[in-house]
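Readers outside the structure-tokenisation community will struggle with the description of the input data as it stands. What matters is that the chain and its backbone geometry are given together, residue for residue. For illustration, here is how one protein appears when written out as sequence plus structure tokens:

…
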Amino acid sequence: MKKTFLFVIAAIAAAAQINEIAGARIRAHVKFLSSDLLEGRGVGARGGELATEYIATQFALLGAKPAGDNGTYFQKFTLAGVDPQPATELTATSTSGNKIAFRWLDDFVGVTYQQKSLAEFEADAVFVGHGITAPEYQWDDYQGVDVRGKVVVLFTNEPPSDDPKFFTGRALTYYGRWTYKYEEAARRGAVAAIIIHTTPTASYGWDVVRSSWAREDQQVRISPGQHQLAFAGWVTKDAGEKIAAAVNKSVDELLKIADTRGFRAISLPLRFHCRAPSKVREIETSNVVAKIDGSDPQLKNEAVIFSAHWDHLGIGAPVNGDSIYNGAADNATGCAMLLEIARAWAMLPEKPRRSAVFLAVSAEEAGLRGSEYYGRHPAVAAGKTAAALNFDMFMPFGRTRDVSVTGAERTTMYPIVVEAARRFELTITSDPRPEAGTYYRSDHFSFARAGIPSFSIEGGNDLLGKPAGTGAKLFAQFNDQRYHQPSDEYHDDWDFSGMEQYARFGFLIGVNVANAPKLPTWREGDEFLPARLASGVK
């Protein structure tokens, strides 16, 4: 009876504390974190160091305990920066002696994963469809073929289906992500993997690939003796047509073959040569980790994670004379909301039963590297972590009637999320393009791979007091004109009421998960359930 009474009192206190989360404080953090002083918060750069010191100082001021290395707020790790050079060469010679020379950026891009200044190879090639080995779906594109020392040519994405029991139907699984393609090719001993790009299979155009892959790639350092690809690359569809022509096919015909059950790898009568020079450097960086203990003597050893990435693109190629990629929306907003949630949590007169971990991760823009590192070196073990709520890129357009929580429906804590949405009169919107695999593109995915029920809270588009479609139009304009550009800058006329709304929503979810009687898990059949079970959660 006493515990029940205390739980009710704690719930009332938490509900009251929600109203202390203020857009004005979120604004102040965003304004500083995205200022030119921080030079775009580049990983391994001065501005990035300033950002982590600022975040750690804020944690200290609100009384959150250090949960990083050796009693500090910093979880330090080293990345390898591999910057592919324009002199990179890729050719393919047919058995009849015809040579195809691919042009850097116009026809192909790529990087070595061997983390050395010059990677070079000459090897035969095999077309391996989507490059997937998925025994649970009775699918193996590598069946009957040995690709050791060879170049594998493949498509991203996965065989299409409306059957939810076959690669989950329309929704992309991790098997469809380009990262999986390279990982599986390396596991198979391939020397290189080349993805033929099409906009439908990638869900984005060549310009996105070109801009993303023509700059330094920040990689987790490889271990001595670990096999990695000498070259992980992409070619345009037009360049892919030249490869497909070697077996008298078009790219579309190869894709149709790859989508067919019973696909078998096809040897290509081509020998690839690649010379990939790179500038390689070590990059020292840090996650920032703080913890506020729970009130229950036993359950305080478990925790809820709130996360946001602090990094952006630093200083880069100038656009209209501006070379600082400030990253105001992406992701000074998420960091600011993280700090405001932590402040509100610290002020609770009665803390929730479980602890809270507040995590500002590095190198999200490089491929979720900071959250990946935390997943392998957690402050609280995965089997003791109730959930992870991630905050990444919010628009300054004001309050909405809707919110996105893609992935939450895959977990047993979804009823808590639904109830929080009801409390704030928010409609939960479904993923409009599940085939694009957006779930696998933000830091919550790193926690999910460790088995932790995880998702990102993302802003909606149905703006209060605005005509229907206004939010979607404004977001599209941001995506086209500001995303990953120097123009993603803070403005005094930004409306932070929406961020206040979403921070309060996330705070309430976190409190209720922290007070829940059982640790959440993944629903039956989910791809992350085995990892959850392996962590010890039943």
